[in-house]
Amino acid sequence: MNRLKHRGPDWSGLYQHRDSYLAHQRLAIVDPASGDQPLFNEDKSVAVTVNGEIYNHEELRKKLVNHKFRTGSDCDVIAHLYEEYGEDFVDMLDGIFSFVLLDTRDNSFIVARDAIGVTSLYIGWGLDGSVWISSEMKGLNDDCEHFETFPPGHLYTSKSRGFRRWYNPPWFSESIPSVPYDPLVLRRAFENAVIKRLMTDVPFGVLLSGGLDSSLVASITARYLAGTKAAKQWGSQLHSFCVGLEGSPDLKAAKEVADYLGTVHHEFHFTVQDGIDAIEDVIYHIETYDVTTIRASTPMFLMSRKIKSLGVKMVISGEGSDEIFGGYLYFHKAPNKEELHRETCHKIKALHQYDCLRANKATSAWGLEARVPFLDIEFINVAMSIDPESKMIKKDQGRIEKWILRKAFDDEERPYLPKHILYRQKEQFSDGVGYSWIDGLKAHAAKNVTDKMMLNASYIFPHNTPTTKEAYYYRMIFERFFPQNSARLTVPGGASVACSTAKAVEWDVAWKNNLDPSGRAALGVHLSAYDAEAPLISNVPSKVIDSIPRMVEVPGVAIHT
């Protein structure tokens, strides 16, 4: 339990029934006074330990009128739903969650993970026949002969000894949708996604980088916070948080949005050396050797520590938008709507290995919870049912990346954001965080990895062989913490340009010789995507267009190139 104590510093719970053990480290967000775990049904024959938030728990309680609840915790419904519906209740849950449920009547158990994999989860098997479940790899890697990432949207039962996918939305088949784009429908769906995440009994805030996604999250939160239970407890003025390199113009952009929305803004600074000094801790907590994820996790990791020191326990963040709407720069090269849609499907399905992993673990390292409204299952259903023709980037029609999201919140009467914020260009994190940050990481890696070491890389690391000194450096650190073969298999690999899937590399022949996670690798797109001769944004004055800086967004992290 001590290996995961950072995730839940508020309470440690342990329950044993015969040869089954449930252990829990609680971060108390809803009902902090009485929601300690494990949670039980009335006669304690069903025990549950869960990490996450069930946003529709009040509606679910109304369906369980014959049940008596022990706590006000949103997760208290799980044991009672199991009593009523058996293992088929999981798709009734609207939220983010990973849980283990033990039925002591026959000593069986079930395990489930939320639809997209916002919460992290691993499963392992011991030589003695034991099955291990943990929110982080470090909770089981030393005790299991084999372990792996628990797949999102799946259920595991001890009776079947196998997995079953419970999450089966229409978009999962990757068939091409045809629903016409309606900006008001999309707007309302996202507003609902943000509003339901205001469910909290503790102080909270928003991560604000000044980019489109986090700025929309902050705008909607500020607009609807008044009148909520959270506002009654903690006040109606929203707190926002941003971290960046000293003197970054993008810190100014975040401050501009904060001033526009009237938030209490907290600005944190870090240096390149601060980031380098934190790399080992970041890799230990994030549990990956993926280059882009480590680059992006480090500032978020440093910021989370600062936020927690202020007494804040939950933040709302903007992950997932680029995957849903085709917001990465390489989507400029999508040859048609069919390819674009399939790529967005692949990106969403892989989020648990990248941005969800980062957002969950970089914050949980300091006992902070991140909520991500763009990955709300109802919102995803709406956004992924839209004819992908509307998501295609067409310069001659004034449609930049994520145009349909920008247009949905372009309200002249009650503006959500200033025009130049609403129509700011997207850029990869590793570029927008500042070339000095990335170049600093590369220089540091070069001091620790020699050319001679690189010559033997394929023999030392035959799986996902690192091709750069930076990747080799991260891999060495990862293998020191997690030396098992199962551990290295949890990290994805393959050809990628500017965060694309391997399939999308085929969109441009030039990319095959320029594979790099940086947005700079998106040849013909980065920096030159919006030439002055092309109409960029409809109904926006040219002087506003000229003032739009090229940005990246990891929510709350924004440092200029």
TrEMBL record:
GO terms for molecular function: asparagine synthase (glutamine-hydrolyzing) activity; ATP binding. ATP binds at L207, V243, S317, G318. Pathway: Amino-acid biosynthesis; L-asparagine biosynthesis; L-asparagine from L-aspartate (L-Gln route): step 1/1. GO terms for cellular component: cytosol. Its EC number is 6.3.5.4. InterPro entries: Asn_synth_AEB, Asn_synthase, Asn_Synthetase, AsnB_N, GATase_2_dom, Ntn_hydrolases_N, Rossmann-like_a/b/a_fold. GO terms for biological process: asparagine biosynthetic process; response to stress. The record marks E319 as: Important for beta-aspartyl-AMP intermediate formation. L-glutamine binds at D74. The keyword Ligase applies. This is Asparagine synthetase [glutamine-hydrolyzing]. It comes from Gossypium klotzschianum.
